[in-house]
Design a protein that fits this description.
- It comes from Desulfosporosinus hippei DSM 8344.
- This protein folds into 2 domains: 3-118 and 296-316, no CATH class; 124-292, no CATH class.
- 52% of the residues lie in helices and 9% in strands.
- The chain contains 14 helices and 6 strands.
- Strand 5 and strand 6 (201-204) form a beta hairpin.
- Helix 6 (146-179) crosses helix 9.
Length: 319
């Protein structure tokens, strides 16, 4: 493929969301625009954005810029091609995941209307004790005493620590392979191969993790020293910030489903397992759980500097 064909292909990938943005423009309407990576992202961002807007009549249009599974590059390309002499950077914002850019020497732009998640992805903000409590109360009608909720919190945190430790090792392998020109695929790692969650307790399966990763990613080198990569990951607080969000979400959903099945064994005041409710699944996780999260302070500050500042300019006439 020639360079001209490559550029043409890249342009074709973003022409649909770009045209959607152009068609939606209307100088009179009170509109705010945002570009996100994947189809589930609006379920997370829209609620937080609307909760910050107290002015009547304003609408928020979030446009999926990537493919359904997300594509940060397409979002950033749209940021580059829009003529900011014609459009306000406060009216149109961009939202992307940080991923592992800290470790892959990927320099993200510092545009004033670009929001980058504090952690690996939006799933990392969703998976929390706060969301867990809200989900149990709102989706499963679980009403407990504080000491009982604290028991659940403790089980959740213990399991999270085990998952983070496991994923830190796998991510170190990922970074090693990437640094040597390979293209490892996180989606080939099946958490069910590695972990069992019973009665809300994590049990790591008796498996040779090195052999498992090498098999999944077709690696042949037997002599790999991961220690420097693991140390760097931990030094940058990778276990708390940069564990892949989808793997944390797997644990979150598996933990909740396990609780529903065995809650009467864990909490004495609950007489029977929770039945008759819709089971959470990975496919709908962000849509189900995104609206039940706390807004990160960084996102709140970003919205104040962009959307809220634009509303103030339009309604007061002061730029």
């Amino acid at each position: 493929m020639s360079m001209i064909e490559i550029h043409k292909s890249a342009l074709e990938e973003i022409i649909v969301p770009y045209n959607e943005f152009l068609r939606a423009q209307h100088k009179i309407k009170k509109q705010l625009f945002g570009f996100v990576e994947g189809k589930d992202d609006p379920s997370y961002y829209l609620g937080h954005i609307e909760s910050c807007i107290y002015n009547d009549g304003w609408t928020v249009k979030l446009i999926e810029a990537g493919n359904p599974n997300g594509n940060k590059d397409r979002v950033l390309r749209l940021l580059d091609i829009i003529d900011w002499r014609r459009y306000s950077t406060k009216q149109t914002a961009f939202f992307v995941d940080r991923d592992l850019s800290e470790f892959l020497n990927e320099e993200l732009p510092a545009a004033e209307n670009l929001y980058i998640t504090d952690m690996y992805a939006i799933e990392n903000n969703i998976v929390s004790n706060y969301t867990l409590r809200r989900t149990l109360r709102e989706m499963y009608n679980v009403s407990l005493q504080e000491y009982e909720l604290t028991m659940i919190d403790r089980l959740f945190e213990e399991g999270m620590n085990d998952i983070k430790e496991l994923m830190s090792f796998i991510i170190s392998w990922y970074l090693y392979v990437r640094s040597n020109g390979g293209k490892p695929d996180f989606n080939s790692i099946d958490m069910d191969d590695l972990v069992v969650v019973e009665s809300c307790k994590v049990q790591l399966k008796d498996i040779d993790l090195n052999a498992y990763v090498k098999n999944k990613w077709s690696l042949e080198n037997d002599q790999v020293d991961l220690a420097p990569i693991i140390n760097e990951f931990k030094e940058k607080d990778g276990q708390n910030k940069f564990v892949r969000g989808k793997n944390l979400m797997w644990f979150f959903i598996t933990f909740i489903n396990s609780f529903c099945n065995t809650c009467n064994e864990i909490i004495p005041s609950i007489e029977t397992p929770i039945t008759g409710c819709r089971t959470l699944n990975i496919k709908d996780a962000v849509k189900d759980l995104g609206p039940r999260t706390k807004i990160p302070q960084s996102l709140k500050a970003f919205l104040e500097q962009t959307f809220l500042a634009y509303i103030k300019e339009r309604e007061t006439g002061v730029a």
